[in-house]
Design a protein that fits this description.
The protein is mostly helical and about 160 residues long. The chain is built from 3 helices and 2 strands. Strands 1-2 form a two-stranded antiparallel sheet.
């Protein structure tokens, strides 16, 4: 057999092997995509729960929520938040460093072996609140619209806040 024929036969065999093994590689991509969608959903849910908890605390300080309803609502939000954090930990166990840091971790606290206590959850929430860049500074004295600490002027009416 001539060398050109052998070379052509090897190329054809290589394409056949690539064609046959292609579904195995696609399954990995599909699983990775499913994990990224689930991760994205859990991160969005975590942010939603943290925001809801902040709003609940703010409403309670303003007296909008009855004192007897506040502990039950707060406990429910903390329970949901703990479940989301557990799911995030099972989905991304210590792989945040491997993804280039794109996956924000819920906190720098060590991974608990037992269910999180209320104190642990409060610590995680306090760290999260302290880490936020755009914290609410209050309201505009002229128009009454909410303003952030990073705002120099009111986003609504334009009056100077500082």
């Amino acid at each position: 057999m001539e060398p050109a024929a052998i070379f052509l036969l090897l190329i054809v065999l290589a394409f056949i092997v690539l064609f046959v093994t292609r579904p195995f590689f696609e399954r990995r991509r599909v699983r990775a995509a499913e994990n990224s969608h689930e991760l994205s959903f859990l991160l969005a849910e975590r942010e939603r729960l943290l925001t809801a908890l902040q709003e609940l605390d703010f409403d309670q300080t303003l007296g909008k929520i009855p004192a007897e309803d506040y502990p039950a609502q707060r406990a429910e939000l903390l329970q949901k938040g703990a479940e989301v954090l557990r799911q995030l930990d099972t989905l991304t166990p210590d792989t945040a460093g491997q993804t280039g840091g794109k996956v924000p971790r819920p906190g720098s606290a060590p991974k608990p072996t037992a269910p999180l206590s209320d104190d642990d959850l409060e610590d995680l929430l306090a760290k999260r609140r302290n880490g936020r860049k755009d914290k609410t500074a209050g309201f505009c004295p002229k128009c009454g619209q909410p303003a952030l600490q990073s705002d120099v002027s009111c986003p609504s009416c334009g009056s100077t806040l500082k």
